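Worked example 3 (structure in, sequence out).
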């Protein structure tokens, strides 16, 4: 009988020694799972914001180009429109590359029946990456393109 009492007493002591450890384990588990999850959500949100900026910049650049009064002023207007689209989404436009091409005649973009192609490329730096990595910091590339027709029944602009 004393052996059973000793065994019961030892089991009760073990239970009391572990009291309160479940909350500690839960907190550590929550930290280990939530920190990477929050990091992934922030990275996805920044990439989505850059994607919206690139899409809007490509569309705005094409429209600004084809609505320009002269062909000489068109590239400047397109670049300003693209930079404004990036500014609206609070994305730095320093890494943005805008490429404008015209078809069918690259020398005469504002001719009836021509189409202006606006391609925007940028990259998003992953959040919380230390500056010590320098130029090798991981980035996510974002690209967007848009076609803006000049119109068949419009006049040729110089």
């Amino acid at each position: 009988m004393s052996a059973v009492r000793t065994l019961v007493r030892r089991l009760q002591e073990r239970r009391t020694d572990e009291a309160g450890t479940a909350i500690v384990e839960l907190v550590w588990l929550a930290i280990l799972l939530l920190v990477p999850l929050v990091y992934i959500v922030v990275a996805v949100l920044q990439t989505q914001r850059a994607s919206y900026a690139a899409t809007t910049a490509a569309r705005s650049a094409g429209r600004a180009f084809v609505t320009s009064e002269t062909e000489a002023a068109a590239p400047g207007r397109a670049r300003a429109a693209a930079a404004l689209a990036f500014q609206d989404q609070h994305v730095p436009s320093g890494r943005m590359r805008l490429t404008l091409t015209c078809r069918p005649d690259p020398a005469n973009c504002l001719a009836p029946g021509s189409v202006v192609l606006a391609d925007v490329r940028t990259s998003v730096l992953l959040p919380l990456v230390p500056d010590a990595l320098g130029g090798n910091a991981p980035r996510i590339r974002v690209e967007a393109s848009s076609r803006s027709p000049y119109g068949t029944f419009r006049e040729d602009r110089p």
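Notes: Residues 21-66 form the longest helix (46 residues). The chain is about 50% helix and 20% strand.
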